[in-house]
Amino acid sequence: MTPEYYILIIGFTFGFYMAWNIGANDVANSMATAVGAKAITIRQALFIAGILNLVGAVFIGSHVTDTIRKGIVSTEILTDPHLALIGALSALLAASLWVSFATWKSLPVSTTHSIVGAMVGFGIMAGGVDCIQWSKLSAVVLSWVISPVFSLIIAVIMFKIILKFILSREDAFQWAIKLSPGFIGLTVFVIALSFVFKTPLGSRMAIGTPMALLLALLLAVGFGVAGKGLLRRFIKDHRTGVEEIFRRIQIGTSCYVALAQGANDVANAIGPVAVIYFLVKTGTVGTEVPVPVFLLFFGGVGIASGIAMAGHRVMDTIGSKITTLTNTRGFCVDFAAATTVLLASKLGLPVSTTHAAVGGVMGVGLARGLEAVNFAIVVQIMVYWVLTVPASAITSMVIFKILQFFL
Amino acid sequence: MRIPFVSMFMTSPFSGLEEHAEKVKECAWIFQHAIECLLVQKCDSFEELRKEVARIESQADAIKRRIRGHIPKGAILQVDKFTLFRYLGEQDSVLDALEDALNWISFRIEPGVPEELEKEFLLLVDAVIDPVDELSRMVAEARKYFSNYSENQRMVVKKIVRTLREQEHLADEAEDYLKLRIFQVETDPITVFHMVRLAEIVGSIADHAQNAGDMMRAMIAR
Fold first, then answer.
1. How far is CA B58 from the centre of its chain?
2. Cβ distance of B6 and A321 shorter than 8 Å
């Protein structure tokens, strides 16, 4: 066997490990509010998240991936296949190491930003500082501020609307039923648009913006009307009715986030693996590489097994710590996060669902929706967001130098 | 394990308030027992009950400190932080007054409450226990209001606040009547001083309960 095959095996191992970590770390993003608000049980959450992540990865995940995630480094450095091979491997290794360090230390980091940072490290080593697209990198920096702030604003507005038009009304339940098509429709609208704009399957379908808007609008109206009918039929208890209505909408948003996460994040793990695979097979690589379905499946299984094995610990903590979250609040957080991710990716910012969700919780807290929220912790969380890029970049640089010595 | 936004959720101060209110209620019961015991001719357990109240009071104090100590600077609550602390302070004063009353009695346990004043004294005690009992219900109902923000639920809390005010008024009347009777039936200056002071301390229990109600009214204001 040539060294290339060894590299491929190591690449696969670390790709799986990275996927495992994505599953373990990010399952909280999709399911935390649902579990915290007792919309679903921990077991249900893990099951749903595992299945939907796998489905998302295989069926919606991209069959083509950028050689370098988010185009942060110019592709000129890839002209030398040998260098590219070492680079892809060191980036993958560095990102995996940082994410697993974060998992071990329980630090909330973005897996996307880890791989971006690792690519920057490799880029600096291979092509010098000049080959880094600083404007693209500044978009990453911008996203640290924009995604939480944006999500915060949406969450505040959403909760205030629910408060004013439903909760504080004397006949809250009737109003909730009456307005439910609005909330269901809005949610479906955002989900449908995210699906078209954000997931790789959506971009394969190549639907134009006006058409997508029209489609989403139609779906929203349809689901809204149908949803109202179903809610009226199935929810009878007027005392808990309002929360019950939002419980059902919330389950929908959680499922969507799980699906989208599988579709989008699988590339963080298997993108570099695909580059290595392609290099070993053909010897060259362009700006994009095809991703075979078996690789997507491989990544999806990695994410699902991460959820299955480590997700329980995450969910236990969430279930016991978030005790005061109700379905209306959970809905606001989920809706704010999903909308932020949609709008930001439409603007071309590499946002992380984690960051958006943190902003959503802050927003509901500011709108006085939560009994007690600690804002001081946000500063700490942000430090790790910022640390992610340089930390994985430096690790990547070190690994690159070591590998270059051996290979 | 630290998970993205889990660390943002803190223990709600309302759990502590409820716990504290329960301690107050518990003390009120023991206080009532102690007074009944005192008025019975042969009372052995008064001292024991007094110590029990002191013990619970120190537990409640620990809860109070825990609530205050667990609200960091960056915390955002549903209610204004200072109103919450003042509410807690008033609720704690109810407990202090209960303890003070028993201590004051114990300083002059021998003649105790003169037989002619027993009826009026018992009326006063009953009048101040009612608002104290209402406190724990008020906290629980307020917590419900903050979780559903329902206008009906706000009315429930407002009604309790109003009840507290009315009960405090009744307690005031009972206190005044007891004082009046003290001067009518007693001539011994030491007994008069002891009884008047006792009436004031017991009366202050209802005052603090009403103040707590006023703070609650401020907390649920829209």
1. 14
2. yes
The CATH architecture of the domain made up of B12-219 is: Up-down Bundle (1.20)
- As beta bridge partners, residue A372 has B77
Query: Quick check: A242 and B72 CB within 8 A?
Result: no
Structure tokens of A46? 């893990």
CA atoms within 13 A on the CB side of A349: 23
pLDDT at B1 over 50: no
> In Å, how far are A27, A54, A108 from A313, measured between CA atoms?
11, 20, 15
Distance CA A62, CA A57 (A): 8
Token pair, residue A272, equals: 């570099």
Residues of chain A positioned with their CB less than 8 A from the CB of B71: 372
Residue B47 pLDDT > 70: yes
Q: Do B12 and A381 touch (CB under 8 A)?
A: no
Q: Does residue B205 carry a pLDDT above 60?
A: yes
Q: In chain B, pLDDT over 90 holds for what percent of residues?
A: 71
**Contact map slice: A 354-373 vs B, CB within 8 A:** 354, 357-358, 361-362, 365-366, 368-373
Residue B36 one-letter amino acid: E
Residues 6+ apart with CB under 8 A from A72: A116, A119, A120, A123, A132, A133, A136, A137, A140
For chain B, which residues make up each domain, given as ranges?
Answer: 12-219
Least Cα separation, residue B161 to chain A (angstroms):
20
The token pair at A333 is: 């957080």
- Which among A313, A318, A373 is the nearest to B10, CB-wise? A373
Question: Quick one: A293 exposed, middle or buried, by C-beta within 10 A (0-12, 13-18, 19+)?
Answer: exposed
Largest CA distance in chain B: 72
**In this predicted structure, what is the pLDDT of residue B4?**
62
ipTM exceeds 0.95, yes or no: no
Judge contact between B205 and B166, C-beta under 8 A: no
By Cβ distance, the residue of B3, B5, B151 closest to A168 is B151
DSSP for residue A132: B
Of B172, B169, B181, nearest in space to B200 by CA: B172
Task: Tell me the per-residue pLDDT of B122-158, one tens digit each, with 9 for 90 and over.
Answer: 999 999 999 999 999 999 999 999 888 888 899 999 9
Put simply, the answer to whether A371 touches B3 (Cβ < 8 Å) is no
Six-digit token pair at B57?
A: 């009071």
Ranges of residues in chain A whose predicted pLDDT is under 70: 1, 63-64, 66-71, 75, 77, 238
Identify whether the C-beta of residue A72 lies closer than 8 Å to the C-beta of residue A137: yes
Verify whether the Cβ–Cβ distance A373 to B4 is below 8 Å: no
Pairing of strands A372-374, A288-290: unpaired
**This prediction's pTM:** 0.85
3-state secondary structure of A2: coil
Residue B72 is nearest to which of A318, A362, A376, comparing CB atoms?
A376
Per residue in A361-394, pLDDT (tens digit) is 889 999 988 888 888 888 878 888 888 889 999 9
Q: A91-150, pLDDT tens digit by residue? A: 889 998 888 888 777 777 788 888 888 988 988 888 777 778 888 788 888 888 888 899
